[in-house]
Every structure is written in C-alpha cells, then in structure tokens.
Amino acid sequence: MRVNVYAFLDVKTNFFLPPMFFHNTPDAMRGVIRMSKNEHHPISEFPEDYQLFRLADYDDTTGHIKSLEKPERIATVQECLGHKPTGD
Q1: Are 25 and 3 in contact (CB under 8 A)?
Q2: Residue ranges of the domains in the chain?
Q3: How open is the CA angle 14-28-61, to the nearest 5 degrees?
Q4: Which of 11, 14, 22 has its CA nearest to residue 56?
Q5: For the segment 2-41, what is each residue's pLDDT rounded down to a tens digit?
Q6: Could you tell me if 36 and 47 are in contact, meaning their C-beta atoms sit under 8 angstroms apart?
Q7: How buried is residue 45: exposed, middle or buried, by Cβ count under 10 Å (0-12/13-18/19+)?
Q8: What is the pLDDT of residue 77?
Q9: Facing residues of 8 across strands?
Q10: Strand, coil or helix: what is 33?
Q11: Pairing relation of β-strands 50-59 and 65-76?
C-alpha cells in the first residue's frame, strides 16, 4: 500500500520534526487535530509555529520512499484546527 510521508516544519527554527505516515491529506489533517490535543506535543504548545508538509510517497510493500521534488506545504496547524477534512 502506498502512503504519504508528512512532517511539521517549525517556522521559528526552520527545522522539520520527524516524519509521519498517513494515507492521504485529510487523514494527515485529522492527525494534526489529534496531536494538538496532546499537551506534551510541541504543536499543542505553539500551534502558530508549525506548518504541515508532505515530503514523499512510501510503498510499504517494497520499502521504497520517493521524495517529492520540493516539500508540498499543506497547511498551518492553525488552519488544520479550523478545517474539517473531507475527501482527498
């Protein structure tokens, strides 16, 4: 199965957090909402400092990761929190 690789960019430090795997962008945005409810996750403390990016495609049957030519900005964390995900 193919899934997408996402990561948060911390715009204050200009570093990406470790990658995460989601089936599609609405699934990733829903994940952001879940993570924001965890008081120990950096995005819950400083949501204005993070943006969600899609970085690559991952095939879990072959183990291949294909990076995008350029990371694709999806939304800020604040945009994700104000948006109800629909179909991809």
Answers
A1: no
A2: 2-81
A3: 105
A4: 22
A5: 999 999 999 999 999 999 999 999 999 999 999 999 988 8
A6: yes
A7: exposed
A8: 93
A9: 52
A10: helix
A11: antiparallel
